[in-house]
Every structure is written in C-alpha cells, then in structure tokens.
Design goal:
single chain, alpha+beta, 2 domains, twelve-stranded mixed sheet, three-stranded antiparallel sheet, 23% helix
Length: 354
C-alpha cells in the first residue's frame, strides 16, 4: 500500500468581504463594532480565515453538492462530538474525530459495558486561508434603521484580497482504519470493525506497524470503489465550496481562482511559496513563477503522475504566458481552467488508488 498524498494549493479572489470575524473591535469608536480575523508577520497585517472555518465550508459543500450524509453531532454536558462511525459517515472518515463512549460486549456468557475511546487523525489536513499580501481592512459604518426612532449604528471591517490556502489528503488513509490497542490508532470499536467486515471491508496488513510477534498489524479497509469515491468527492467539492460571515451584505465567491493539484509520495507540501507579495508595503500579490519552476525541478522525483495547474479566465491573466511556458518546459504539467484540472486530477486519482 503506497503512501500517496494529494497536495493542493488554492488562491481565492474576494472583494469587500468579512469572511471570518473575531468578535468585538476594541479599537473602534462604535459600541457595536466587529473586527475581522487578522495576524501580523514581519510588521505587516494579513487577514485570514481560520482552518476550522474552511473545513466547515468544505463539509457543507460535500453535504449539499456531493450528497454526503453528515455524521450527527452529539452533545453531552459541555462537550460535543460526532457519531464517530466512518463506515456509515464519510465525513467522519475524511475529517477525523475523537469520542469517549461505552460499548456493550459479551464475556463468559454475560453482557457488560466497557469504556472505549476512538480517535481518528483526519486524512484531510489544511492550512488557514490567509491574504497573500498585506491588507488594511476598512472600518465601514452601517445602521439598522427599519423602525421608528433612532437608528442603531454598527461597524464592520471589510477588505479585498487575494488569499492563499493549502491542503493535503492522505490517500492511503481514506477508508482505511486501525483498531489495535495503541494511542491514536483505535479508529474503530470492535463492533464497528465487525460491521465493516460484514459490509465487505477487507483486513489488510499495516506496512508500518507490527505486533508483539513481529507480524504486521491488521487494518480494516473499505471497498476500493468507496475509498476512491470519498477521495474524489473531497477534491470535487472545491468547485462548489461557499461560506463566510456577513454573506447577506458582503457575499464573496470562495471557490478557487487558481489551483495546483499533485500526488506525491511524501508528506511535505511543496507549493507553500508559489505566490509572493511585492510593492513598498507588500500590498500586491503576484505568482512566483520562478518558485513554481523550482518546485517542479527539485521535487520531480516525489510527484506521481501529472501536476495540474488551473487558472480562471480574468484572474492574473498577465501570468498566462508564463504558465504556458511552464507547461511546455515540463512534460508532466497540465494547464487549463480550474474545474477542468480538478476533473482531470480526479481521473488520475482513480488509477493511483487502484
């Protein structure tokens, strides 16, 4: 079982938005003032969407556009967790979980309850989505005035930005589960393991972990078709992803306007610096064409199959010729529109997961 990973990099292009807010703006003169999430680096300010928010949008796109039935959220006292059943719920599989619960088993002819804790490290890992160049959000005044008497003023921070994000999907882990007694490896309870096997899951050798006898530990793996379907849906959902705060007045399109998709045999993400900021105050974002070429040369041996680069017409059109030159220089690079490249990558994914 080769340990392949989908490595993805995206650029968003948004105007006058407030995608992820941070609560009360303590620097504002208004009592009702909302700040947007931001962070400082090298003395410059960058706005961002938290990785958690991006995952929330992603999950919703899988539900609404890919037909996924999401795992129900269970609340107990001050904690909340999903059903932790990755056999039935694909989002538990792809997004991971942790749940402490009890299970009834039969021992020596008697039924008894035992405590079980199941955890799953998410096969899908993602960054925050952060502005590619420094941004100074504008504080804009609004009011609620649909009533008699004085209006109720409030303010919000808004910005326009090119924003970057990256993600990695562990293809070997999708639809593959462990339940041996080791912290972080108990993905399934014994009853869920039995349920999976009855549904057609196979027991396969873990190539990395051995038991006390020196034999490979066993993993529970769903049918190949189901594993491929879950991985493809996760990538396809990027076409439809939507979300963000204040969408009623500040609707923004958060689908990728630029994307790189590749399969690698390493866990390192090679595309983190393929965009850079320029200008006196680092306020302009431009593609780092030399950086893309450098990555393609230095990581050539880690790429499996083709590298797909998608760009939306009207976005960074001045870079089209440079990207075309990259496609000519590297026979494993394919260039086209964003959705076309997502589709072609998913076709490649089918053969790689076979």
């Amino acid at each position: 079982m080769e340990n392949l990973k989908t490595q993805g990099f995206v650029l968003l292009d948004v105007d006058v938005v407030a995608l992820n807010n941070a609560g009360k703006n303590t620097t504002s003169n208004f009592d009702n003032a909302v700040a947007t999430k931001s962070v400082y680096k090298n003395g410059r300010k960058y706005v961002y969407v938290s990785g958690q928010a991006w995952r929330y949008w992603w999950r919703e796109a899988l539900q609404k556009n890919c037909g996924w039935e999401l795992s129900p959220v269970i609340r107990e006292s001050k904690i909340a967790f999903t059903n932790a059943n990755p056999i039935k719920y694909a989002d538990d599989d792809v997004f991971g979980y942790m749940r402490a619960a009890s299970e009834e088993i039969e021992e020596k002819g008697k039924k008894k309850k035992v405590n079980i804790t199941v955890t799953r490290v998410s096969p899908l890992k993602n960054s925050a989505v952060v502005s590619a160049s420094s941004v100074s959000p504008s504080e804009n005044w609004s009011s609620m005035a649909r009533q008699e008497g004085d209006s109720v003023p409030y303010s919000k921070q808004e910005y326009s930005a090119i924003m970057k994000g990256m993600f990695s999907l562990d293809l070997a882990q999708v639809g593959t589960f462990a339940n041996y007694n080791k912290t972080g490896y108990v993905n399934l309870s014994e009853s869920l393991k039995e349920e999976a096997v009855k549904a057609g899951a196979e027991l396969v050798d873990d190539p990395f972990v051995k038991n006390e006898k020196g034999e490979p530990q066993k993993l529970i793996q769903l049918k190949k078709e189901e594993r491929i379907s879950r991985a493809k849906d996760t990538i396809q959902a990027l076409k439809y992803i939507s979300g963000g705060a204040m969408q009623t007045n500040n609707m923004g399109d958060v689908t990728p306007k630029f994307i790189i998709l590749a399969t690698t045999n390493t866990g390192n993400h090679p595309f983190s610096h393929v965009i850079k900021s320029t200008g006196v105050r680092d306020e302009e974002a431009v593609l780092n064409v030399e950086g893309i070429e450098e990555v393609l040369k230095e990581y050539k041996d880690t790429f499996k199959g083709n590298v797909f680069i998608g760009i939306r017409s009207g976005f960074m059109d001045s870079e089209k010729e440079n990207l075309q030159n990259i496609e000519k220089a590297f026979d494993f690079v394919k260039l086209g529109s964003v959705n076309e490249m997502i589709d072609l990558y998913c076709k490649q994914l089918e053969t790689q997961m076979n």
